[in-house]
Amino acid sequence: MPAPYSLDLRQKVIEAYANKEGSIRQLATRFKLSKNTVSGFLRRFRETGTVHPKRREGVGHPAKIDEPRAQYLTEVLQCEPDLTLQELCQRFEARFGETISTSAMDRGLKKHRITRKKNGLRSPKTHPPGPTTLA
């Protein structure tokens, strides 16, 4: 999401409108804003008496992996470091009774800085020696 416009710009638009320096459309052109943005600034000022942007708390879904759950995942990965994301999701669901996608699991692990070191000693895929030719 883009950042809200600065308070300085908001105040200048409100002051210019209060001083009758132009219509909404003229002020939009002058400050390089859309007409709807200028109208929104004015509406917000009339309704609340302030030009501060709305708070953005509560946007989106809360994270499924909070601190106690992250601690559980850390312990599981210490015991079994070779678990895949899918297997971690299954363990999470069995323990907490909530489903979680692999992408949400990955985001949660990154957020809590839980690293996974996969075992590099797995047998490599076997390939026939030498180049293969199609006949």
From TrEMBL:
Any Pfam family from its record, for instance, is HTH_32
List where Pro residues composition bias occurs: 126-135
Stretches of Basic residues bias are at 109-120
Region of interest called Disordered, as start-end residue ranges on this chain: 104-135
Enumerate the InterPro entries for this protein. Homeodomain-like_sf, WH-like_DNA-bd_sf
What protein does this entry describe?
Transposase
Organismal lineage:
Bacteria, Pseudomonadati, Pseudomonadota, Gammaproteobacteria, Chromatiales
